[in-house]
Protein: Sodium/proton antiporter, CPA1 family
Organism: Nocardioides szechwanensis
Amino acid sequence: MTDALVYLVAGLCLLLAVILPQALRSLAVSAPMVLVGIGLVIGLFPIPGEFSLDPVDDRTVILHVTELAVLVALMGVGLALDRPLRLHKWRTWTSWSATWRLLAVAMPVSIAAVALLGWAVVGLGPAAALLLGAVLAPTDPVLASDVQVGGPMLADDLEELEEGLAEEDGDTAQRLDEVRFALTSEAGLNDGLAFPFVYLAILIAAGGFGLADAGEWLGWYLAGKVVIGVVVGIAAGWALGRIAFRSNRPSLRLAEQGEPLLALAALLASYGAAELVGGYGFLAVFACAMAMRASERAHDYHRAMHEVIERLERLFTLAVLLFLGIATTRGLLSDLTWSSVLVGVASIFVIRPLAGWVSLAAFPRAEDRPGGMDRGDRMAVAFFGVRGVGSLYYLAYAAGEAEFDSLPWLWSTVGFTIVLSVLVHGVSAKPWLARVDARRGAEGPGLANRQQGG
């Protein structure tokens, strides 16, 4: 009877995952909101068998499920980004201006502000406060689909984009969707770049953090592991792209065969290789996807791979959000306090918006250049720092590496913040971005988000 119930619930949930994106397209309601809501309702009913979803008892399950969800999302983000990034061409780097600002300024400021709030107001120890800041800082690539670019462009649109970027054409800049691009590229990179601060919290929790430990953190965790992850990812993406598009053996040219599972193989291989040699696997997966995309930018094969990854992402998102909703009404928030609510509300409504605005408004790039933003665009990017699955992964990972004080409180606070983010950003994303698109004019959702059928 229990097995039959599980199959029934799983089938109904998969059906929801299929129909929700289309059914909610015209409503100011997101699929994550509905899925969390369903989970909340399910959690109110008695469920036969052992189904605790306790973050302490089920930490390993939470760790691996959220890890896979983030990895799949990162591969999808890397394949979806149409804007090139070439090491030897400075103009391609300047068109990513908003991304670098968000990573270099907004994320560290957010980590510091949340950590200070946790230490000075809540009374957490230094390690737990820093972990809270690192966990709640990254913009999530899984739950931010409503504010991200769609998928790879068609060849004609991509050629138009590349020409406009090469010339820094003002007309092209006016039609670029800088909001979605900035949020998408930020989500692709900051999940990996938050890891050094998670490790810093782990090192502090282990005790005896001195000058030598600080040097090790700066040289290895902040620099070395980042470089290794990026290099491994680029190498893997370059090799797989070369094989898929230009192999001397026709049987290996998977792009001609249209076999989209190469994306999943690339995801697993790049992540595993980076972790084996000590690099950050999240960065490796994103860099691998970007390198594969760069190997033959205009080929329709990227669209086929992205569609497969998008479906996998939807399934993992479904599972995580349902479990989050169920856990929320079955004890995840049992250690929630007013200080938890303060941290969650401040993170979403104050800290991220202010940090994002400062990073984008200081010495801004001209609006008529690719990478430039007007006031409305900066406000949208600053506000939509969605918190989600990555936060659960980081907390589960850190909890397995060291002992932190107030760990149940941390789980309740992070769970509350994610649910609040799903609600707030889910309600506001469609109407706000519709106004952003309307300001852009008759070009629709923008050149950088234009895709077949969209």
User: Anything to note?
Assistant: Residues 450-454 have pLDDT under 50 and may be disordered.
